[in-house]
Fold:
Amino acid sequence: MDSDDILDTNALTELYDIAKEKETDMIIFKSQSFNQDPSQPFVEEYNEMEQIPSSFKNKLFSFKDMLEHFTSLDVTMPTKFFKYDLIGDIRFDEDVIFEDNLFTIDYFFNANRIYFYDKVVS
Structure:
């Protein structure tokens, strides 16, 4: 998360409980945006995760299942909950812009149990 990202107070507990129950490698969830005032959030189309087909909602899937939709997938960090054990040698490349997107893409290819949580937690 960057300094301009916000999570609901119970978000980490909520996501951890889901990850534990479903034994996930990654959880993808919705987010809201805001300009200067976090009390005035707004939803952008990209944050709605419409690029995730309804057939994957409330089910576990792998990166292979999402290949045809991958180029439209939100790869930003603040909408993901990662399993630490899968991070391994994946690191942020500090020499590029949008290094968090590259990290997420690398991780995504190692994730076999991805869950889309159809809720805003940030």
Observations:
- The mean pLDDT is 81.
- The longest strand covers residues 114-120.
- The CA atoms of residues 94 and 100 lie 9 Å apart.
- The two ends are 11 Å apart (CA to CA).
